[in-house]
Amino acid sequence: MTDRTGIFAGDDPFALARDWLAEAEKTEPEDANAIALATSDESGLPNVRMVLLKEIEADAFVFYTNFEGKKGQELAANPQAAFVMHWKSLRRQIRVRGPVERVEDAQADAYYKSRSLQSRLGAWASQQSRPLAGRGTLMAEVAKVTAQKGPDPARPSFWGGFRIRPVEIEFWADGRFRLHDRFRWTKEAAGWTTMRLYP
Q1: Is 178 a catalytic residue?
Q2: Which segments of the chain are extended strands (E)?
Q3: Mean pLDDT on 111-135
Q4: Out of 54, 66, 110, 115, which residue is the most buried by the measure of CB atoms under 10 Å away?
Q5: Position 90 in a domain
Q6: Which domain holds residue 88?
């Protein structure tokens, strides 16, 4: 049994994560849904970058990307990931890790359609993670796909979503004198167990 009260209270880590994110959206000046996403290549060498978390489902976290970029290739080769969300304004963070799977085409289509036209065209134009001669080359490619795809482009087959189904979620809040509060949720066969951790 753990002494989870106040901001840590509740029996559902995904509901708790949604509550913390909703609170951060009121205080963070930019991109409260930004996560530092870690993947690793076939040799095990880790890679980390900022991406935007787009949905917290009942049992998973969802983000979108180019499947042919570095992160997409790494997730195809090793479908596991970890991320951290940190909110300086709240002095809190959430850490997540677990296996990864692609989201269904219909879900990816719906999210893609909700994006601005410029972002949809940008998804077509960007050969993510590959060498680029200059910004002019990128802008020329945007102009080209704009002429080709028109005002309502379909989602590219090389672009879509990934879902992380966590095996661990940790909620952390800053404490005075570095005596922080940390609670780790671990996925077991019978459900989630929680444990308070030393700072």
Answers
A1: yes
A2: 34-40, 46-56, 61-66, 80-87, 92-102, 159-164, 168-173, 181-188, 191-197
A3: 92
A4: 66
A5: yes
A6: 6-66+74-108+160-197
Binding residues for FMN: 49-54, 64-65, 70-71, 93, 128-129, 172, 182
Q: Which amino acid is at 134?
A: G
Residue 140 lies in a domain: no
Binding-site annotation, residues for substrate: 54, 111, 115, 119, 178-180
**Tell me: the pLDDT tens digits for 128-142?**
888 889 999 999 988
Q: Which of 22-36, 37-51, 120-134 has the lowest mean pLDDT?
A: 120-134
The active-site residue out of 176, 178, 184, 196 is: 178
- Mention every residue, 6+ apart, whose C-beta is less than 8 A from residue 126: 66, 138, 141
Answer yes or no: is pLDDT of 1 > 60: no
Q: How many domains does the chain have?
A: 1
pLDDT of residue 60 exceeding 60, the answer is yes
Task: To the nearest 10°, report the CA torsion of 171, 163, 108, 49.
Answer: 70
CATH of the domain at 171: 2.30.110.10
Domain assignment of residue 132, yes or no: no
